[in-house]
From TrEMBL:
Organism of derivation: Georhizobium profundi
Pfam families in the record: HbpS-like (PF03928)
InterPro entries assigned to the protein according to its UniProt record, in alphabetical order: GlcG_carb_metab_protein (IPR052517), PduO/GlcC-like (IPR005624), PduO/GlcC-like_sf (IPR038084)
Name of this chain's protein: Heme-binding protein
Domain of life: Bacteria
PANTHER family per the UniProt record, alphabetical: SLR1406 PROTEIN
Length: 143
């Protein structure tokens, strides 16, 4: 497993929040997990409502769990609701199948972790997650 340096995790957060400011989004929580699903970094903007950490972490954890962005999990709801119910159950409720969880990869395609963002619309959360990853010089996989 390749390590995700703290400096890169913090750069992801900085880049995501800069994009959110440019877009005029609501206050966000941004969680960066390493490839093992452990919290590497987190920031919650002033004014962000409660549960932003838990929701962002759930989006990122879901992405890591299936090796794809959390949008993929969300899209499965229409045709495979039992799959999603099972995933949430076996993860002890750690997975939130909503867009906004994006895989972080290096240039070789190795998964380094995932970022999960919560606070605005799911589409906007996902957009700023991608922007943050790219600002850190890494590759984003949202689906």
């Amino acid at each position: 497993m390749t390590d995700l340096p703290l400096a890169k995790a913090n750069r992801i957060i900085t880049g995501a929040l800069a994009q959110a400011k440019e877009m005029g989004l609501k206050p966000l929580g941004v969680v960066v997990l390493d490839a093992g699903g452990h919290v590497k970094a987190f920031q919650r903007q002033d004014g962000a409502s409660m549960l932003r950490f838990e929701m962002g972490a759930g989006k990122a954890y879901g992405a890591l769990s299936v090796g794809s962005g959390s949008r993929w999990l969300h899209d499965q709801a229409a045709t495979r609701p039992h799959f999603l119910t099972g995933m949430v159950g076996i993860s002890n409720g750690k997975i939130l199948p909503v867009p906004g969880g994006v895989l972080i990869k290096d240039k070789k395609g190795t998964i380094l972790g995932a970022v999960g963002i919560s606070g605005d619309t799911a589409d906007n959360d996902e957009t700023v997650a991608v922007a943050g990853i790219e600002a850190a010089g890494l590759i984003a996989q949202k689906d």
